[in-house]
Amino acid sequence: MIVQTIPIPQALTLHPLPLSSSSFSPFGNVIANPSPSSTPQTTTVSSIAADPLLRSHGAISANQGTAIQYKQLGAHGLRNLYDQAPSGKVASGRITMFVCAARAEISTSPGAASKEEKEEAGRAKNSIPITILERHPFTTQTFIPLTANAKKQYLVVVAPSAPPGNPDAALPAPERNQNHLLPGRGLPDVAKLRAFIATGEQAVTYGAGTWHAPMVALGPAGTTVDFVVVQFANDVAVEDCQEVVLEGREEEGIRIEVGLPPRMEVARL
Ligand SMILES: NC(=O)N[C@@H](O)C(=O)O
């Protein structure tokens, strides 16, 4: 539900970076195969012991040696903090699906964009407006694209919380998380918005309370990116989802948008 309207102080164009675990760590987790070159056939107790990457992701040999199981995929696992929700209403785990229409397309061909491509991108105004941010204060939310295709892409737009103050004082938000990973109860700090380009080989978990824009699928017109979404909810609107409208002044060009590059290298973890 909409809880606030924030005036956009000045025009802002975000330049998205390839999504990676390290750049996204203040906001949540990137989930991807930590070591695509490792196969179940060649991964043994001793090869795991010798490989810091496998060890740091908690790799074990599973399914009678026919699988690798990674048990540690980031600090923001599934979190249910509804025991701190003022309504006291218990939450349940939910699995839903978002079928997201592609809203723009960028090329994934490696290499720098040519002068002509940059000019063309400028002319096409290849940008996505950001007009709303939302957070799920008491739960993590994981978006898992139903494709393992690096050519499928989506935009992840997130903001840290501003220091707490009057405007957010009445909003339900948790105070404690076992790993102290909460972003804080404040409204989004729009000047510090960040944008990332994710691929179909990456899933993303927003940490509990992380401000984020509604998912933006990328790709040719008429296509979709389908996501399985895993979170908790208790059906109390203000505890499940708090939305903030970002109010620009179109006539003065005061808006927030993500500028899409004509070409972008896609990154692994
Ligand atoms: N992220 C996104 O697209 N949507 C949500 O977080 C939602 O719960 O609606």
Explain this structure to me?
The protein has 269 residues and is mainly β. It has 2 domains: 2-32 and 75-259, Jelly Rolls (Sandwich), CATH 2.60.120.480; 35-72, no CATH class. It is built from 5 helices and 18 strands. The strands form 5 sheets. Strands 3, 11, 12, 14 and 15 form a 5-stranded mixed beta sheet that branches. A hairpin with a 4-residue loop joins strand 5 and strand 6. The longest helix has 10 residues, at 115-124. The protein starts with a strand and ends in a 10-residue tail after the last strand. The model is unreliable at 265-269 (pLDDT under 50). The structure holds (2S)-(carbamoylamino)(hydroxy)ethanoic acid. (2S)-(carbamoylamino)(hydroxy)ethanoic acid is lined by residues 134, 141, 212, 214-215, 241.
Helices and strands in order, then pairings?
Layout: E1 2-7, E2 12-14, E3 17-18, H1 21-24, E4 28-31, H2 45-49, H3 52-56, E5 59-62, E6 67-70, E7 92-101, H4 115-124, E8 127-129, E9 132-135, E10 141-145, E11 153-159, E12 194-199, E13 203-206, E14 211-212, E15 216-218, E16 224-233, H5 237-240, E17 242-247, E18 256-259
Parallel strand pairs: 1-17, 2-18, 3-12
Antiparallel strand pairs: 4-13, 5-6, 7-16, 8-18, 9-17, 10-13, 10-16, 11-12, 11-14, 11-15
The structure holds (2S)-(carbamoylamino)(hydroxy)ethanoic acid (UGC).
(2S)-(carbamoylamino)(hydroxy)ethanoic acid binds at residues 134, 141, 212, 214-215, 241.
